[in-house]
From TrEMBL:
GO terms for cellular component: mitochondrial matrix. PANTHER family: FERREDOXIN-FOLD ANTICODON-BINDING DOMAIN-CONTAINING PROTEIN 1, PHENYLALANYL-TRNA SYNTHETASE. PROSITE patterns: FDX_ACB. GO terms for molecular function: ATP binding; phenylalanine-tRNA ligase activity; rRNA (uridine-N3-)-methyltransferase activity. This is phenylalanine--tRNA ligase. It catalyses: tRNA(Phe) + L-phenylalanine + ATP = L-phenylalanyl-tRNA(Phe) + AMP + diphosphate + H(+). Its EC number is 6.1.1.20. Pfam families: BMT5-like, FDX-ACB. Keywords: Aminoacyl-tRNA synthetase, ATP-binding, Ligase, Mitochondrion, Nucleotide-binding, Protein biosynthesis, Transit peptide. InterPro entries: aa-tRNA-synth_II/BPL/LPL (IPR045864), BMT5-like (IPR019446), Fdx_antiC-bd (IPR005121), Fdx_antiC-bd_sf (IPR036690), SAM-dependent_MTases_sf (IPR029063). It comes from the Eukaryota. The keyword Nucleotide-binding applies. Residues 524-617 form the FDX-ACB domain.
Length: 617
């Protein structure tokens, strides 16, 4: 079938005439004025005649804000809509033109195919994006990306509008007159539909725990992430591909054994180096499946588990009426599972054992701070006295493996091995192409002794040694922990960790057949919105900033990218303390409008008042 193209606001139809000759394209060219008014413009009559001769449809008196009224659904939706240099006419200001664009985008959404494109050409500076040179101040621009987001569109491409390359094109309509205007530096903005903003329902997980089937409510902040199965066999996800390629590279140097099965999501007991406040505490229910009543009242259950989630002390839960015989939490690391296997004596000396899977931790909102990521743990048992050579061999092979993967991107990694006191650090230093995206963060492998902590800023992970006396003699175990998500971001040029979790098929389609390549962003210059919230902290209580950030994560669906404390005040008379935080909202893959953010902010205020017992100002 021919590609249906709709052109709006044609001044003299010269652009439509140039496009009409394209093979496989059915053109519907329109303008706001009547045929009599348009025919008086230079070249308009000739262009209209040419369009009709070539089989195009020419329609007059079409309002871009009411497209559904002009084009009935039985004629089919449009694959592409062009609106070149829209304007309200005469000396209308930026506010009126934003309103025009807002009506246009909402109307276009009603007649566009699901995978269709909307092309809007604007003069230099009007759009308000960094692509404009020079870029106008935000309040003085048409704010086209934010306006389009209100109708569910994202900016997927932007390129110069080169009028000189369009055969026969002549711009007209300056201040509603038959006069040309300057199009030097003009830009064509290409918009596509965004996947909708999702409001995740509570998720009930069914697992086997200590030979008994149990269910538990996933923390709301993890509702869309806990069962994604990135690492399942033959997954197209780049995290899986990085893991498989790393494993294949390492298998060239070590006998290798995967231990990915039977690793429970829930863990019990003390984990050295991980704070209780950073853990997602869980109360499992001993039942095979949730009852109909429980499923229907899932929202109430989500609030209950959110309350448990925000408490710092699980003993308090028991005092408030929560009954559990044992304390469980979502695993913050896979290292304890490696230790458990070692203690069972099932390790083969000289073999590199590999464990991988998602791990979960509460954390403050920061560019590379993730509440869930995929960890790969490497463990090797060697005879005492040979551990240093094993460490060196493992480091060298991890280095070479990473270098072999980074060939998909256009930058080079500078990897240097350094020694510092009791541990060694392998740094992947800043490099030119990624410096602006990764800021000042350092990615490294560090080798420590006798610790089980996990370094928050660690992309390639931590390697450490531990000593165990086994029946067949003393062995030394070398551990390496790799953050596969951050490695994938580094290798594929993905600037935002949230993109790894997107439901938009345009992400995975770039990594089909297990290939790694440089990621091409499909949502450019997403708008950001700033909201402040101030409140009184309860007397005598320390404010729980981690819980504050966690609420912001789940209320916004990970749309909050920054939280900054901008003011702190304490009354001299009463001693009451007031805090003011600034929240920045921005999506990396979805259309986020000002209205949606305002709704999130209202809900956020309600939730912090209820859960943190603050008094809003």
């Amino acid at each position: 079938a021919a590609r249906r193209v709709l052109l709006l606001g044609e001044g003299n139809f010269s652009f439509a005439a140039s496009l009409c000759g394209t093979a496989g394209t059915y053109v519907v060219a329109t303008c706001y004025e009547s045929e009599e008014e348009v025919s008086r413009r230079g070249r308009a009559a000739e262009s209209i005649r040419l369009l009709r001769e070539r089989g195009a449809e020419v329609v007059f008196s079409v309002d871009c804000a009411k497209l559904k009224d002009h084009f009935l659904s039985e004629k089919g939706e449009f694959d592409c809509i062009y609106f070149n240099f829209p304007h309200c006419g005469r000396k209308s200001g930026v506010v009126k033109n934003r309103e025009l664009l807002a009506h246009f985008f909402r109307s276009s959404a009603e007649v566009l195919t699901e995978e269709g494109e909307v092309h809007v050409a604007l003069c230099n500076g009007q759009g308000g994006t960094p692509a404009d040179q020079p870029q106008r101040e935000w309040h003085n621009s048409w704010q086209i990306v934010a306006v389009a987001a209100g109708a569910g569109f994202i900016l997927s491409n932007i390129h110069p509008f080169k009028a000189e390359t369009i055969n026969g094109y002549q711009c007209t309509g300056y201040r509603s007159q038959d006069k040309s205007f300057h199009v030097e530096g003009a830009l064509n903005h290409v918009f596509t539909r965004s996947t909708p903003l999702l409001y995740f329902k509570p998720v009930v997980c069914l697992i086997e725990l200590e030979s008994q089937k149990v269910s538990f409510q996933a923390p709301q902040v993890l509702a869309d992430k806990i069962n994604r199965d990135f690492l399942k066999l033959n997954s197209n996800h780049p995290v899986w591909t990085v893991k498989e390629k790393l494993t294949a590279e390492l298998s060239q140097a070590f006998p290798l054994q995967n231990i990915d099965c039977c690793l429970s999501l829930l863990h019990q007991g003390h984990l050295k180096g991980v704070s209780h406040s950073n853990i997602f505490w869980i109360i499992p229910s001993p039942q095979e499946t949730p009852s109909t009543e429980e499923m229907s009242s899932g929202l109430a259950n989500a609030v209950l588990f959110s309350h448990v989630d925000f408490c710092r002390d699980t003993d308090k839960n028991v005092q408030e009426g929560y009954h559990m015989s044992k304390q469980y939490y979502l695993r913050p690391s896979l290292l304890p599972y490696a230790q458990a296997i070692i203690q069972r004596g099932t390790f083969l000396p000289g073999t590199l054992h590999v464990l991988s899977g998602p791990v979960f931790r509460k954390c403050l909102i920061a560019p590379y701070s993730m509440p869930v990521f995929h960890e790969m743990v490497l463990v090797c048992a060697v005879k005492r006295g040979t551990e240093n050579s094993c460490i060196q061999m493992l480091v060298n092979n991890i280095k070479s493996s990473i270098c072999s993967l980074q060939t998909v991107s256009s930058f080079k990694l500078n990897i240097n091995l350094q020694e510092e006191k009791s541990f060694e650090t392998l740094e992947l230093n800043d490099f030119t192409a990624f410096e602006s995206q990764l800021s000042k963060i350092k990615y490294f492998i560090c080798m420590e002794k006798d610790t089980l902590g996990f370094c928050e800023k660690c992309c390639v992970g931590i390697t450490r040694t531990a000593h165990y006396e086994l029946l067949n003699g003393e062995l030394v175990f070398v551990f390496a922990s790799l953050n596969l998500d951050l490695l994938t971001m580094l290798i594929c040029g993905i600037a935002d960790w949230r993109m790894l979790w997107t439901s938009d098929k345009r992400f995975l389609s770039q990594f089909s057949r297990g290939e790694l390549r440089l990621f091409k962003n499909f949502s450019l210059y997403p708008p950001s919105y700033v909201h402040d919230v101030s409140f009184w902290v309860p007397d005598g209580e320390k404010f729980d900033e981690l819980a504050f950030h966690t609420i912001a994560r789940w209320v916004s669906g990970e749309m909050v990218v920054s939280i900054q404390l901008i003011d702190s005040f304490q009354q001299a008379e009463t001693g009451r303390k007031s805090l003011c935080y600034r929240l920045t909202f921005q999506s990396c893959d979805k259309a986020l409008s000002h209205q949606k953010v305002a709704e999130m902010q209202l809900l956020f205020r309600k939730e912090i008042s209820q859960h943190l017992h603050v008094t809003l100002r």
